[in-house]
Amino acid sequence: MPAKIISGIETAKAIREEIAAEVVSLKQLHGLNPGLVTILVGQDPASESYVAAKNKTAHALGIHSEQVTLPSETSEAELLQIVSEYNSNPAIHGILVQLPLPRHINEANVLFAIDPAKDVDGFHPVNVGKMMLGEQCFLPCTPNGILELLQRSGIETAGAEVVVVGRSNIVGKPIANLMLQKRPGGNATVTVCHTRTKDVDYHTRRADILIVAAGVAKMIKADQIKEGAVIIDVGVNRIGQAASGKAILAGDVDFADVVTKASAITPVPGGVGPMTITMLMKNTLQAAKQAAGIG
Ligand code: NAP
After folding, report:
1. pTM of the model
2. Where are the alpha helices (DSSP H) in the chain?
3. Tens of pLDDT along 210-232?
4. Is ligand 1 within 6 A of the CB of residue 171?
5. Tell me, which fold does domain 141-275 have in CATH?
């Protein structure tokens, strides 16, 4: 039987409706208007489209959003000055600096300069440290979106063998950590694979839940998964062009190959992707409430 499709579009829609309703009540009851700024340096087309999508979603949910677009030759000092101004701007509750930054700017210096209370991407070491400790904090958006997808799809994680392929700071490491936490949605036994793992297939074949964030198109085939596994495909790879002239998106999992062997799978597009922006909005809402001492 083909796998159940875990739709990020539908799950994101449900969460966005919850956020929009809360934004309305925050405005009505508290006069509070959640605000997000996105800061883009340079003209990377993918980054431009990500930032545009974030602002469009914020707008659709009633969240105030501002976009700062800077030339690629912007200096680190100039960028730090802008971050500092938004840190003290009371109308802005969330600051997102779109990555990657041009090479002459040290990403860590910029991310660490964001007020942790406005770090809606969850990349500041204060938030990363709190996440490790299982404390309340801003969780990074893609891993948090994966947690929501699993929970809202009724997939049990307690005691599950979870294998994560990829160890990046934005996906692999945080999702591994979150699945390990001693709380609902966690309690899994987690293995993390990377390019130095001796036998990736050995691990992927034992996974009850396989999370792939490697950035290698269609690398996971049916013979690398267990019958009935849940597959979370984080990868977004542009491969060739459709007749329309647009790039075709493919995940890190060969969907057509594994769909009859897995029990549930996220498609690409329409799986993890829509969840990432949604969790950014949720973090912005949370940041606004915390700033106002609500909830
Ligand atoms: P990344 O920083 O490039 O990290 C990739 C990780 O995968 C690295 O840890 C690398 O190992 C590992 N890896 C690569 N090839 C491998 C292989 N053949 N076998 C085992 N491990 C392998 O990527 P990322 O930022 O985590 O993103 C991963 C993918 O997710 C990309 O396609 C990206 O576009 C996508 N993504 C999607 C969303 C979304 O919202 N849908 C968000 C973020 C990222 P080493 O550490 O040893 O190099």
Report:
1. 0.96
2. 8-30, 45-60, 76-87, 107-113, 125-133, 141-152, 172-180, 200-204, 255-258, 272-291
3. 999 999 999 999 999 999 999 99
4. yes
5. Rossmann fold (3.40.50)
